[in-house]
Amino acid sequence: MKPEMARPSKYGNMPTAPQFVAKVKGDAGVYKVWGFDWMHHRVLLDRASLEWMPIKNVALEPAPTDLDD
Length: 69
Hints:
This protein is an all-beta fold. It has strands spanning 7-9, 12-14, 20-24, 30-37, 42-46, 50-54, 58-62.
């Protein structure tokens, strides 16, 4: 497996998007993970819109290979 490289942007070198999906407690959906806030223990999920969720309420799984970016 080839290591992911930072992607160039007009704001500088941006890290690659996390390759995870999340299942939320009490919800049947599976959502793409866009980021982590380790200091405040939150995960940024793409639900109806982008939403921060407490990390204790999600189960992370590796993203399928056919997931859109």
